[in-house]
Give the backbone structure.
Amino acid sequence: MRSKPPTTLASALHRIGLNKLLLHMILIVVSTVTAAPYFWALSTSLKLRRDVFTPVPQWIPSNPTFQNYLDLFYMAPFGLFLLNTIIVVSGILIVQLVTAPLAAYVFSRLRFPGSGFLFGLFLVQMMMPIHAVVVPNYLTMNALGLLDTRLAMMLPFWASGYAVFLLRQAFRQVPRDFEDAAVIDGCSGLRFLWHVLLPLAKPTVIAFSLISVVTHWNDFLWPLIVTDSPAVRTLTIGLAMFVQQESGADWPVLMAGTVFVTLPLLVLFLVYQRRFIESFMFAGLKG
Amino acid sequence: MRTAKGNLSPYLYLIPSLVFLVAFTYYPIFSSVYISLHEWNLFTREPVFIGLENYAILFGDTLFWRVARNTLVYVVGTIPLTMVMALVMAILLNERLGWMRNVYRVAAFYPTMIPMAAAAMLWVWLLNPGIGLINHYLMQLGLPRIEWLYNMDWALPAIMLTAIWKNFGYFMLIYLAGLQNMPGELYEAADLEGANFFQKVRHITLPLLAPTTVFVVVVGIITSFNVFDLVHLMTQGGPGNRTNVIVYYIYQNAFRFSDYGMGSALTVVFVVMILIVILVLMRFLERRTHYEV
Amino acid sequence: MLNGRRLRNLVRSLLVVVAVVGLLASQASAQGERLVRLTFYYPVGVAGPLARVVDGMVQEFNAEHPFIEVVPVYSGDYDPTMMKVQTAVRGGNPPDIAVVEISEFPSLLAMDAIVPLDDYIAQHPGYIEAFFPAFLDNSQFEGQIWGIPFQRSTPVLYWNKAAFAEVGLDPESPPTTWAELADYAQRLTVRSGTEVSRWGVTISGGWNDWLFEAFVRQSGGQLIDFHGREIKFNSPEAVEALGFWVELMQGLKVGPPHSTWASTPPDFVAGRTAMLYHSTGIMTFLKSSADFPFGAAFMPANETYGAAVGGGNFFIFEGIPQENKDAAWTFIHWITSPEKASYWSAASGYVAVRADAYELAEMQDLVTEHPEYLVARDQLAYGHGKMMAPAYQRVREILKSALDDAQAGLVSPQVALDRAQEEMERTLRSWIQGR
């Protein structure tokens, strides 16, 4: 997959008398600038409150302490928020992985009246700005008596046009012969989907799963509107409410909260870098 | 493809998805339109039909036009910059860099992994006028200290800066994917013709990336029109409504003022706004791609 | 296969047993004790771990009252709390009790969301009279009392004594008039070129509408006459007050034109502003963070001293069972007793809602060591109820926009307030006409 143009940037720079060193220098500067905010937050989270007001910023805290993280859990149940986030994100993904393959299957291998129009419905959903439908969806949840539940945070996402789109592409790559052979063996319909298509589309499934998890981990407006009580609150809302509670007075603890909210995904990301990056790149490719 | 026969009807396979699609994407659109024609707020227990009056109030309200203006400034301001940064970084990262490549990629992409809410907090802290890093380094450079999020002129740019920081990594990856699928022969041919690096980028890379660019622009527009988290956490629409954007305004009307009628009317206007922008853009970009290739 | 089937059957039966037992158990507790469970929304409007304090008090109450269980739900600042209450009530799911910002009282009335408390009050002679009268202003309508004060405050002027000494001012004498304020602020502002490293006085943004009301009171005016249903945003007193602000911020440039409620206390602590208008509620935060001596004083007078009270009241909601309402009253009465009011005030820095709370041990100890905590209470002599109107969220936005624009020097105070007046009259048209 690495068919890229020849390294002529280096030779171009060489012509001007510079070399790859410059390239790396530029990239290092950019990387430092993008990484700096996070490190600064990390550093702040390990400081005592009075050390934050120093006129010269200290990147390495002079009196590092984990107290802020302890205070964080004392002030708000961030452990519970984490649990809720995991539950919601998993709940969304699991159902998406049921509804989407079913739909992608029929769109990829069957022709039937209205299939074009129906597929179009899924495509339009992909483009739909999600925030455009919050008000009616809120009223729907209210009517269903589902306000302030984790279920409410999951329901609107259980159909995913994006997943259907990606999986359809992947399923179409499976050759006819496979299917014909399978049918002869008595494996068709759902069983074909489950035993043949999905395993073959595993990279796509993984890619989509990662994207879905990251996207819904970061959901904000919708959970904000449909949930109230701390019992079902997720990390992002927990952070926002915590910000209000602390009202900018206690930056080290606020930064501890911010770091904590980002930590699970970031750790996963650093460990499975390749997977994550390939998933997101891959998704873009098919767009 | 074969036509369906035997087994389960294909429609049955679609029912699970369609139930949720209709309930949470399509029904709400019609519902919004319907509610927008009613007065339904704190004082009216049941919705009261008032025709297009919500829209009349909406379009006559100077605050709405300010909100629309803020939103457009935000979109127009963030997308080109994000795209350019993403493209440049992708081209740079496409070179042979050894293992450092991973480091650069992680550094550029990790902001996408953190919630908008967290990004907002990071930058509120950085932009703190008194003890924030940004002002500190600005002053070291001899530049005046800026009140950033409290300053009517700088608050929106500050939010835009945060958004660009957060999003460019994602688009960079998409461009990288596009670059890695470039056909090598075209470049070899150009080499034979004696083209230098910058000429190749201009005449081969960019035109071939046009479809990717279209994707980036469309996704970018939809994402930036949806901006809410940053505004809610960084400025709450202030100071003086200078950072109030359309989704935040919908939220204010529907949930703070408890005015579902107006909130729905704003939602309808919002969706129409996006559709127009996308249609116009696609028409524009399509024409340009035709010329180049 | 046989094993598998047996296993599955076993699991299925176990699940049924568990479900049945669970159902029976819940039935038992429902029928046996008649535990009344109350949902209680409350906000925290100032910095500090006050959610924990409230939770602690609630737990104490629950322990002392075995048949009532209050479930406290921290719901953010005042605005988000009102949002939650609004949406809950409109959705048919009201809480049992809530502490709501006092200016929201008319909105609650308009929604028919709350119940009048006179019958309950009559059961306790002398109870309601113990509250500071200014705090009851925002609870009364048409001869009935609808809310009980809980966390109340007034704005005060904080001043940095070390900074005063630095510029040759007497550190024990804060300004007492507007003229003195302007003068001192000019002496205290530290400038280098166009850069201001220390402001003379900061009038905190965020709730600048509340602070503005105080300045209007200091000029002898009033922004909203609630019982008379009259809006007076562009009265001469209001224009004078805003004019003074603009003079400070744009004319003399001794104060920042914009800030947030949360950013200004740290600014004061960091020495970025020598004087600060803010709630008495941040006193504890300042004491624990500032490394210089500071004082708290009445806000300087114009024609008179003046303040608008702030904070939240308890309300009991409609649409809940009668026994819930009764239990809610038990809770409210308990937590506003002199002992609890004293404890809450000492722990939070809010003004104790009743005068007799100040005679109890906790408050006595506190004010002996830190007399600043008495300033807000004493200022109550010049205190008035906070302005209120239906759809107050919108009212706030209209006023704040006008203030922000004028503070930034974009429009003159007269124009800003005229526009606000016009918008208010349009928005509250039906209320003004008496519907």
Q: What stands out?
A: Chain B is about 75% helix and 0% strand. The beta strands of chain B are 2-3, 38-39, 48-49. The mean pLDDT of chain B is 86. Residues 66-257+288-292 of chain B form a domain with the MetI-like fold fold (CATH 1.10.3720.10).
